[in-house]
Design brief:
With 81 residues, this protein is mostly helical. Helices cover 43% and strands 0% of the residues.
Length: 81
């Protein structure tokens, strides 16, 4: 991949089961996904990408992005505001 999404090539989630990133589990998300994200070299870029998409679209993204569930990302935005 080239261009603005080139960071995705190094994302550890690309090597794992996509269902792990669904955050509808009790406790706010997948422990496996959050563990993988914690080791990921592009976690910061992933978090920034999710933030940009949510700001642009005005809707919350489902799933784990940058190691955070939808609820956790919303709480972080509220705390930062």
């Amino acid at each position: 991949m080239t261009g603005r999404y080139a960071w995705m090539d190094a994302a550890l989630c690309a090597q794992a089961d996509p269902d792990e990133w669904i955050d509808n589990l009790a406790g706010g998300g997948s422990r496996t996904a959050k563990r993988i994200c914690g080791q990921c070299p592009v976690r910061v870029a992933c978090t920034a990408h999710a933030d940009q998409l949510e700001q642009h679209d005005g809707a919350s993204l489902r799933g784990i992005w940058g190691g955070h569930s939808q609820t956790q990302r919303r709480q972080q935005r509220q705390t930062a505001a």
